[in-house]
Amino acid sequence: MSGKRLPRPRRGRPVEIRVDGRKVSAFEGETVFAVLCLEGVFALRRPGEGHPPRGALCGMGVCQECRVTIDGIPDRRACMTRVREGMEIETGGR
Amino acid sequence: MAAERWEAAILGGGPAGAACAATLSQAGIRALLIDEHDRLGGPTLRGEAAAASPFARASREAKGAIRSLGGGAGAVLRRWALIGLEPGFRLLAASEEEGLREIACRRLVIATGARERFFPFPGWTLPGVISTGAVQLLIKQGVLPAADFVVGGTGPFLVAAAGDILRRGGRVRALADEARLADRLPPPGLLLTQGAKLIDGLVHSLRLLLSGSRIAHRTRLLEARGGERLREVVTARVDENGRVLSGSERTLPAEMLAIGFGFAANIEPAQLAGCPLFFAEDLGGWLVQVDESLRTGVAGIYAAGEVTGVGGAEKSFLEGRLAGLTILEEMGRLDAAGRSEVSRLKRKRKALLAFARWFNRQARFTPEYRANRVGSLPDDLTICRCEEVRLGDIRRALAAGCRTPAGIKKATRCGMGLCQGSTCKGILEEVVSALAGFPPGAFPPPSVRTPLRPVDLGRLGGDGG
User: How many angstroms separate the first and last alpha carbons of chain A?
Assistant: First the structure.
């Protein structure tokens, strides 16, 4: 049981990215948040020792809860960033 | 940093901002549209509206306006966020990639839209608990984020979100709405003017019922449970005073819980500009005061769309056009046809405001209900997700003599984190007024300051902009 891509006429070119070191296929135009959902990766950051993980809340750039590290740059919002060929995404930051 | 100069700047590229920018730009006015996202249209238009949807026409018109932006005297800045506003209409904008820039303008249109409201419950911070708007945006991108959902909160928007999930092959185990069914019934006058939208809602409800989903009113999200991510949701019936009816608890397995508690206008840029505000619970809370031509209380600043009253894409599109025509009129550039359009738009706006008032009418919770709802929540419940402030911290600050949300913010750091209180300031206001026995709107919204959005000074330093 998990999410899925919907049948849809216009989808971007296929790209390959890495999520926590793992190869993942995606399509141009999809946000990092969307691809992480499809991979079942809901826990995106850890506020600190002993705190349970957090995931995206608002999905539209406001709440700052979907922060991940993208190509080495921390605190990028997964919901506001679209995937690119070769993108490296790391979850589990503060 | 040299400021670029524009006749008008428009903040927000949703239906209101796009309509306004297109109106000005087509009239030969140098107008700059600034939006935080990489695609214009706001959350409502970032996808295809179903052809039969009552919103399809507004959506088509707004998309036409967006397409026309390239052809006029205007320009569009995408992925730039307003972070500050200095005297003399000097805007400070930031981009993740390109640093800072300063924009000077003679006139400013604030069309910054709305965001979702939240009300906390145990487990609401678990991964997998996301906003109904987030789910709808993902669907518009062509992705159904999970297979198995529970939808809950308060408001008519829940039905639309659940309907979208279902239509794309997802399962909705239950829809838990804390409002009474009676609150969902529209007044007769609305049926005449806004019948199509109401029927749309009815169709969604029927689809839900036919699919076997349970639509439960006066039903609260009691708890979300899980470890690394959501596993199950507990709901319970509540009585008319907001107390849980014991024995009515139900535990539902779910991969995702989509929550929505209505909308709050993004008034922060207007606050920064010093525009007078007003409070109207049935238009979404704190809003920017405008006259019927959409002029704010500050000369040269106009407001359009959700910030003048949360009412959806059609109202926003109309107001964006109206604000643009108001500016043209002030510049002496409006002909007779334009003037008659202005009168028509002003009349239609009144009908749309009536719809908005119904749409936003949440369950009218009594003071006792609100006190019980907050009173039943545990001390270790997270209120401010950025600064990890718990409900117990707020109760202690109240006991120590803090009387207002602003005082509690200072004492606890609630709302002082990365999101600048976007998520929790409405919650804090609700919690404090419920615990202290004040009606909604008793406290002014907390003050805002530059930067409105988090800015990585390290990355912006040097010759940014």
Answer: 29
Q: Which residue of A has its CA nearest to B117?
A: A58
- Residue A68: phi and psi, rounded to 5, are -135, 170
- Euclidean distance between CA atoms B284 and B114, whole angstroms: 9
Question: Could you give the CA distance from residue B174 to residue B153 in angstroms, rounded to a whole number?
Answer: 11
pLDDT in tens, B205-248: 777 777 778 889 999 999 999 999 999 999 999 999 999 999 99
The pTM of the whole model exceeds 0.90: yes
CB atoms within 10 A of CB A71: 12
> How far is Cα B84 from Cα B95, in angstroms, rounded to an integer?
13
Q: How many distinct helices (H) and strands (E) make up chain B? A: 14, 22
B301-303 and B99-110 beta bridge pairing: parallel
User: Are A63 and B147 an interchain contact pair (Cβ–Cβ within 8 Å)?
Assistant: no
Q: Looking at CA atoms only, how far is residue A70 from chain B in angstroms?
A: 12
Whether residue B141 and residue A34 make contact (CB cut-off 8 A), yes or no, is: yes
Provide the terminal-to-terminal Cα distance of chain B, rounded to the nearest Å: 7
Reported as a single tens digit per residue, the pLDDT across B94-149 is 998 888 999 999 999 999 999 999 999 999 999 999 999 999 999 998 999 999 99
B127, B255, B422: residue with CB nearest A62: B422
Work out the burial of residue B51: count CB atoms within 10 Å of its CB; fewer than 13 is exposed, 13-18 middle, 19 or more buried.
exposed
Identity of residue B12: G
